[in-house]
Write a structure and sequence with these properties.
Distance between the termini: 21 Å
Radius of gyration: 19 Å
Number of domains: 1
Order of helices and strands: HEHEHEHEHHHH
CATH class: Alpha Beta
Largest sheet: 4 strands, parallel
Strand content: 5-15%
Helix content: 40-55%
Shape: globular
Number of strands: 4
Structural class: alpha/beta
Strand order of the largest sheet: 2-1-3-4
Length: 247
């Protein structure tokens, strides 16, 4: 169930039987020569909606812009400052907690979000721990990265090996090709496998990785690969959500 397609009485009814909600979160940033700028948001949303269908959960609207300052030298990329993103997550959780939601399960599609999401959780918990009134309702927050499970990892190793890399990966590009087959493309990339390494700000990133990839060869991606990755991700995330929300 998608929150924005429900009525308020339907949400009120849902809250009588459960108080957990799934929140997809991603980013709007470059993903190399053939990866979609919306990859991190649309993959987390796609997986979250499939998990909700399996579990009967509500899915909140996707948080589509994340912490991506290091991609800002590539046209189309967007970012929130870490402090802004923390404020967005706090307000999102507080809005839903006001109505009785207590368990917030974030399905994340962007590695660059992890530190800021974790900091936001700490801010949310600190507000409750330090509230003068002492009567702020307790909440629980959990972060799950859709790619970080044994099933997806095994498929990525089988299909791509060391050519998976760490950004604009064939796994995430394959997933978008499965979702949107009309976007599949395989342009020339030189070198075939991008260099690896670190970076600081946006200019440093563009200087070190001129076409946006890090350690990857997304030309290996196909829609069929994406279907396998999608099914493995949904299986793992749904299992995690069911166990956590029932605890």
């Amino acid at each position: 169930m998608r929150l924005q397609l429900m009525t308020w009485p339907a949400v009120e009814t849902y809250l009588r039987r459960g108080t957990a909600i799934i929140l997809p979160i991603g980013s709007t940033e470059q993903h190399g020569p053939n990866g979609l700028i919306g990859t991190d948001a649309i993959t987390s949303e796609f997986i979250a909606n499939a998990v909700a269908e399996r579990t009967g959960a509500i899915v909140a609207p996707t948080i589509a812009v994340g912490m991506a300052q290091h991609h800002m030298a590539f046209p189309g990329s967007m970012t929130l400052r870490p402090s802004t993103m923390i404020a967005v997550l706090r307000d999102t959780v507080e809005s839903l907690a006001r109505h009785g939601f207590t368990h917030f399960f974030f399905v994340n599609g962007h590695g660059g979000n992890i530190a800021t999401i974790t900091a936001a959780f700490s801010e949310i918990y600190a507000e409750r721990s330090m509230a003068p009134s002492g009567n702020v309702p307790a909440v629980r927050c959990k972060l799950v990265n859709w790619w970080a499970n044994a099933g997806v990892s095994a498929i990525s190793r089988e299909l791509f090996g060391s050519r998976e890399g760490s950004h604009a990966t064939p796994s995430e590009v394959a997933l978008t090709f499965f979702m949107h087959p009309e976007t599949e493309s395989h342009p020339e990339m030189e070198p075939q496998v991008a260099p690896s390494g670190g970076f600081t700000d946006a200019a440093d990133y563009r200087r070190n990785f001129p076409d946006g990839r890090i350690g990857s060869n997304p030309n290996l991606a196909t829609p069929a690969h994406g279907k396998r990755i999608f099914e493995a991700a949904v299986e793992a995330v749904a299992r995690d959500y069911a166990a956590w929300s029932a605890a």
